[in-house]
Specification:
By secondary structure, this protein is of the alpha/beta class. Helices cover 36% and strands 16% of the residues. It contains 4 helices and 5 strands. The chain has helices at residues 3-24, 58-70, 88-97, 138-152; strands at 30-34, 40-45, 79-84, 101-106, 131-134. The protein has a 5-stranded mixed beta sheet with strand order 2-1-3-4-5. The two termini are 26 Å apart.
């Protein structure tokens, strides 16, 4: 997929992230899952706080919805766009689902599993590897996360890191 396509779907993921914060007071992370033919399979945003479910990260929500829509746990050839680097749980779910590619915006220096802390998506020990592209609209995603955490923490300096590990 080209740069224009990546920008389009990442903007959509950022819109979902904003919706998460605005509608559900969730950490603003959005995810969009696109089929190999370029059609939208599913989307999601963080729901772990509102659903009292530690696994309801944006990526997991989108993959669950896609699996249900397709009637299959394998999401072969799909590309997942997400506003924050996936954590270990989400990365391994992508491996198990056989996602072809993940495109993320901001790095997560505390829990990122696509190269920042771990590199689970490219680990040669797995029977499937996921192509990773990063940095698409990273500044926008990082600013959204920083603003949300600052508001939650009353402007504390800890909020300056995009990835906090708090529900991302």
């Amino acid at each position: 997929m080209g740069v224009t396509t990546d920008l389009h779907w990442m903007r959509h993921a950022l819109d979902l992230a904003a919706r998460a914060a605005r509608e559900d007071d969730e950490v603003p992370i959005g995810a969009v899952l696109i089929a190999s033919d370029g059609t939208l399979l599913a989307e999601g945003w963080n729901r772990n706080i509102s659903e009292h479910d530690p696994s309801a990260h944006a990526e997991i929500v989108a993959m669950r919805r896609a699996g249900q829509a397709l009637g299959n746990h394998r999401l072969l050839g799909a590309t997942l766009y997400v506003t924050l680097e996936p954590c270990a749980m989400c990365a391994m779910a992508m491996v198990h689902a056989r996602i072809a590619r993940v495109v993320f915006a901001a790095r997560d220096p505390k829990t990122g599993a696509a190269g920042s802390v771990f590199n689970l998506l490219a680990d040669p020990r797995h029977n499937h590897r996921v192509q990773v592209d990063e940095g698409v609209l990273a500044d926008e995603a990082s600013a959204m996360l920083t603003a949300w955490f600052r508001a939650k923490r009353g402007g504390s300096p800890r909020a300056d890191t995009a990835g906090s590990g708090d529900g991302a």
